[in-house]
Amino acid sequence: MRQLTVQDYESGQRLDKYLNRYLKEAPRGFLYKMLRKKNITLNGKKADGTEKLAAGDQITLFLAEETIGKFLGNAPTCGREPAARGAALRILYEDEDVLFVNKPAGMLSQKAAPGDVSVCEHLIAYLLEEGSLTEEALRTFRPGVCNRLDRNTSGVLAAGKTSRGLRELSALFRARAVDKRYLCLVAGTVAHPSRVSGYLTKEERTNTVTVTAEPPGDPIETEYRPLGSAEDFTLLEVHLITGKTHQIRAHLASLGHPVLGDGKYGDEAVNRTVRQRFSLRHQLLHSWKLIFPEEVSGLPTLGGRTVTAPLPPHFQRCLRELSLRAPK
């Protein structure tokens, strides 16, 4: 027999999801059979698996330790890679449920391959170092990011520290309730603000997208306003209304204003020039602000809050050399 106590960061998830994570090698049919036969109980009572867990709930496994050990699988390793360090995170805001970091260009938001070390691994390393997460807890809950930025895009990245934080914050992004603002330096002179629409089609094989004025494709909307121009370059503030893969980069490129340093959608001749002049290694696209609505019922600490990420040094250096001023 083994008794498990639900921790605060695990609360809000369904019992069957919790059990699937804890006994990850157990067939689902076996778990539901154990629930039906009361070999697994919740707070001493029969449960069917759909119950939402709360902090302090007691889950009792009336199973042999040999059986439990067989179904536990290998111990979790996420966050224990040698390269994953919590100190690598540049934290912008943190409370008991959520955390926002200023992701540097060049770092993955999430793993793309088994050996990758992404923001998720650094996040878990940080929480383990702080003592707000344990290795054993990783069996039933894994903190993670709620929005994604391309590897070479810097700026605000949101993460859930608890099951509640991850669930509620992800729901806000899905509902497009979060106002997302970016800064980028583009080729050409943009004189007037505009709100543009189009259709985006993704090519999975090459991980590229195409933007067209007419269907087919997913409808997209992008709003931007110029903050200053110099030497045929323009600093733009971009309001991402829809949030599709590579949307800002591909949409602006389709309008004749590619992001400087963008190897996929940029102008090769312009990129070659700016690489030499500014020693650029990454595209000049930065997730600048996340603006939350006045009321956020599931996460009241975020109501009316704006999380801002300072521009990285290489972006600031380019603006200084062009005598352009970054907004505050």
Description:
The protein is α+β, with helices and mostly antiparallel strands and about 325 residues long. About 25% of the residues lie in helices and about 25% in strands. It is built from 8 helices and 14 strands. It has helices at about 15-20, 30-35, 65-70, 120-130, 165-175, 245-255, 270-280, 315-320, and strands spanning about 1-5, 40, 60, 90-95, 100-105, 145, 155-160, 180-185, 195-205, 210, 220-230, 235-240, 285-290, 305-310. Strands 4, 5, 6, 7, 8, 9, 10, 11, 12, 13 and 14 form an 11-stranded mixed beta sheet that branches. A hairpin with a 2-residue loop joins strand 11 (about 220-230) and strand 12.
